[in-house]
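tool=predict chain=A
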Amino acid sequence: MGVPIVIGTDGSDEAARALDWAAAEAVLRERPLHIVHAIESRPNTTPLFARSGTAEPTTCVGRRVLAAAVERVRERWPDLETTTVLVTGETWQALGAESENAFELVLGSRGLGDFAALRLGSTSLRMAERSTVPVVIVRGDAAEGGEVLVGIDPVREAGAILDYAFDAAALHGARLRVVHAWQSLATFLDAGYADVEQIEADLRRAVIAACRPLRGGYPAVDVVDEIVLEHPVTALSRASREARLLVVGARDWHWTSPRLGSVSHGVSHHAQCPVAVVPSR
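tool=predict ok
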């Protein structure tokens, strides 16, 4: 069945929602599901559900978390090939190792170990920064029948981002909306552009050119391009209200370090549908 979809779980409600998304995705893509639970080996800590006097309580809790996850999957998708693993170590390192050769890694937007006030959990953020495979952060609600939304910058290489977005749109039989949002009007005018209409026309041509190599491979995908004079995070977060999935790149063009770009960082916090963060090739 090919390489798996990997899902990290800690037994939280957010993780359960991510598990459902990952299982449904695995069924559609005809891929196995691999469920990971990490036990962080920190001294002088007690697991949330541990009982006094039990031997290796964190291991017992971890096994219960995985058993509950498998039971949840089998109730709805009994034929889905599912495996589990209980690992010890830093969560982000464990997830990175288990998903190194995966199709994608799926995470909840926040887990038991993260501060409730944060919009995005530390593990999800770190994996989106460092993962070598796409990371899907399950937040909000995927709109049934909604579009796949992808944000790109046509002046940089967007091949991997568009590959993922076209594939997702084809998988779900959804329209693909390709959005480029820009805000620095002065920069364009300084470069010799006469007006906003000229800028928009040139940007639209660049977006169309970026999509052209993939249109032939996905003839059934209806593609809509949208050029917006607005901050990218604002534009994409607003459009995500009616989307089933938002796809963005892991880096802005000027980042060379393992740091999430400002746009992907912003939408990972504010989008109202699942967000796929795709690393560059």
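Residues 57-76 form the longest helix (20 residues). Strands lie at 5-8, 33-39, 82-88, 104-108, 135-138, 147-151, 176-182, 223-229, 243-249, 275-278.
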